[in-house]
Amino acid sequence: MNGISIETLFSGIGAGLSITVILTVVSFVAGSVLAVPLALARTSHLRVLRWLAIGIIDICRGVPPLVWLLIIYYGISPLIALEPLPAALIGLSLISGAYLAENFRAGIDNVHKGQREAAMALGLTPTHQFWRVVAPQAVNIAMPPSASYAVSLLKDSAKASIIGVADIIFMAQLEVSRGAPAVLVFSIAAVLYLLVGIPLSYFSRYVDSVVRRKVVTV
Amino acid sequence: MIFDRWIEWLPALLEGLGVSLALTGCVALVGLPLGLVFGLLSTHQNRLMRTVFIVFIEVFRGIPLLAVIYLLYFGLPSGGITLTAFVTMVIAHGLNLSAYSSEVFRAGILHVGPGQREAFASLGITQTRGFFHVVLPQAMRAVIGPMMSLLIMVFQSSSLAYTIGVGELTSKAFSIGAMTFQYFDVLALAGIIYAVICIASSRIASNVEERLKTGR
Amino acid sequence: MDMTENRVLLNANSISKSYGANDVLKGISLEVHAGEVIALIGPSGAGKSTFLRCLNYLERPTSGGLTLDGEQVFKNPLNPSKHELVQLRRRVGMVFQSFNLFPHLSVLQNIVLAQTLNGKRSKQEAEEYAMKLLAQVGLPDKASAKPSQCSGGQQQRIAIARALALDPEIMLFDEPTSALDPEIADEVLKVMRDLAETGMTMIVVTHEMRFAERVADRVLLLDRGRILEEGSPEQVFTNPTQERTKTFLQAVLNR
Predict the structure, then answer these.
(1) At residue C59, what are phi and psi to the nearest 5 degrees?
(2) Its principal location (chain C) (predicted)?
(3) Cα A31 from Cα A153, distance rounded (Å)
(4) Which residues contact A140 (CB under 8 A, 6 or more apart)?
(5) C147/C139 Cα distance (integer angstroms)
């Protein structure tokens, strides 16, 4: 096999691992930041804000991730010259922002009604009611589904290779184009994803069990 | 005007949409029955059997669909197997869906409590007959809502077929973009088509789910 | 045991509440004197909790008005300002049937939170006061526990301490022992009895007839959104004037 060993394949494909991790972590963090105002608007008393948020969330989630990446990289970069990596980060952050906003919204809705009443009865201002009583519990409730969303974000990040981001899949394709056997190469790529994904999903299950213990209904 | 161009491109994109929908349908035909089988085997009484299938499902759920598509598309020819891009996509995506749907089926089956099993056992109904007449119908009801969300995801992910040149919606849009250099306009139209279908079907899905819940 | 002064602390004037066509409260008026303990009893669905919740505007009455210590609480009772609502609730404490402690905070933080956020005390003073209240309800060693680590009876005693931390002029109890086993309920009732003895003004929605009989100065029996019977515990329990009161009392006392 013209000098190709499993070790060199592993290190060649593994060179994309850090980019895959960066794509996942950065778009998860940026998505969480975007998700906060979206979730607040989504649960607002003002109908206009609520509908605006629903519209943004639905569009972000209704357009397939790949199409988002193509729109941003091929459609917008002629205007502002985006490199593949920032284009992918923008696209994945938008998508994760919308998914996480829905998690946060469900968290806010699932805080027991009595909690807000108790805060009201203690004479807290509406702002304090929300930020000191409802929000911390909403975050706890939203954490397990958000942690498991991180796992699907990891897999979504593979689509960035299509617009030329040098992640695991991209490096694997490179090895195939140099003549390495595709079955072996993509199996190695799959193993690399599992190496990141399995600990991540165990972590998300751990978060779930911790939160379950912490937020028992009182 | 952008709308004039949209009208000009629409027939080609709708043709692509037809291929996307056909892909989705074929993937469902492969992935759902396979998922039911995996789901049953992952709740099997035999511990070894159960573990093997749970591991298989977990591994498949941990790998990006794109890796599976490339593995089959670039890998199978070297083993002497040549399939069309469409069939490759159906197999890759079908396997992927089977892993996800098996989880849904498993949850549905487990959702039917042991009380039901005890009930038909005490009526002298055999395990197998009871399973098909009592457990499965109830599980199916619990499964319909999540299954519809899965199919919406399948429709979205069918856009990955673009990478191996199946002429579905995203491919059509991209090739029009490549010819006219109006990538944004044509991809935006494709995005709108995807979004309209996904948003409408997820609204329908949640309505159906709601009605099934209250219908109890 | 009569601590009642003549000063009217809270005056609820013809409180009505409807949900659509459903009239839950049909014009209930009540004068509460400082230091008085009032028990609200009656069949479920009579409107007891709704009336209580109208007194701190967790439920907004459809009509009627409130005065607290001789002053109108709201300029316009049908459209209260946020400021007026907050001020009312800082003066009126409430204890819920389901405790509603904040699960993300420790017991001590539960009691400290509103004191500091409302600018009543500094953090250090608030913590000292919270410790004092915890001792008063018999739980000084639970300060750093989470609510989920406390029993139901303990949680309710903590909830009482939390409400007391704002030095309310009047305390509302909404079926405080209904979610508890009878033997656990006693520990909460004891705290409430001690509180009544300090001269706290209290309105208690309850199914505990013995508590109503022994601790209350006045018993109100609500039925279908109206006050059916009103008087001292002795009058209401031994000499009811209404036929429906007798039926109700027989049903609950023979349970």
Answers:
(1) -110, 130
(2) membrane
(3) 11
(4) A107, A211, A214, A215, C104
(5) 12
Domains of chain A: 6-214 (1.10.3720.10)
Q: pLDDT tens digits for A118-163?
A: 999 999 999 999 999 999 999 999 998 999 899 999 999 999 999 9
Q: What angle in degrees, to the nearest 10, is found between the helix axes of B85-111 and B47-62?
A: 130
As beta bridge partners, residue C16 has C26, C63
**HEC sequence for chain A:** CCCCCHHHHHHHHHCCHHHHHHHHHHHHHHHHHHHHHHHHHHCCCCHHHHHHHHHHHHHHHHCCHHHHHHHHHHHHHHHHCCCHHHHHHHHHHHHHHHHHHHHHHHHHHHCCHHHHHHHHHCCCCHHHHHHHHHHHHHHHHHHHHHHHHHHHHHHHHHHHHHHCCCCHHHHHHHHHHCCCCHHHHHHHHHHHHHHHHHHHHHHHHHHHHHHHHHCCCC
Q: Are A120 and C99 inside 8 Å of each other by CB?
A: no
Edge-to-edge strands of the sheet including C37-41? C92-95, C170-174, C201-205, C37-41, C218-223, C226-231
Is the distance from CB of C255 to CB of C53 less than 8 angstroms? Answer: no
- The reply to whether residue A124 touches residue C86, judged by beta carbons under 8 angstroms, is yes
Give ipTM to 2 decimals: 0.90
Alpha-carbon distance values, B2 to B186, B188, B191, C154 (Å): 9, 11, 15, 68
Query: Quick one: which of B17, B163, B190 has its CA closest to A160?
Result: B163
3-class state of residue C146 by DSSP: coil
Q: Are B134 and B116 in contact (CB under 8 A)?
A: yes
Contacts of C104 in chain A (CB under 8 A): 136-137, 140, 214-215
pLDDT in tens, B99-147: 999 999 988 888 887 788 788 888 888 878 888 888 888 888 889 889 9
| CA atoms of A115 and A130, how far apart (whole Å) | 10
Q: Using CA atoms, how far apart are residues A163 and B211, in angstroms rounded to an integer?
A: 42
The conformation of residue C155, written as its DSSP 8-state character, comes to: H
Token representation of residue A164? 């030329």
Percent share of chain C, pLDDT over 90 = 89
Three-state secondary structure call for residue C212? helix
Q: Exposure of C3 by Cβ count < 10 A (0-12 exposed, 13-18 middle, 19+ buried)?
A: middle
Topology classification of domain B2-213 = MetI-like fold (1.10.3720)
Residue B93 tokens, joined: 């995506």
Helix ranges (H only) for chain C are: 48-55, 82-91, 107-117, 123-136, 152-164, 182-197, 209-215, 233-238, 243-253
Instruction: Measure CB to CB from residue B170 to each of A67, A169, A194 and give the nearest one.
Output: A67
Distance to chain A for B158, nearest Cα, Å: 9
**Contact criterion met (CB < 8 Å) for C163 and A121:** yes
Write down the H helix ranges in chain B. Answer: 2-41, 47-62, 65-75, 85-111, 114-122, 127-130, 136-157, 169-180, 183-214
What global pTM score does this model have? 0.86
Q: How far apart are CA B70 and CA A173, in angstroms?
A: 8
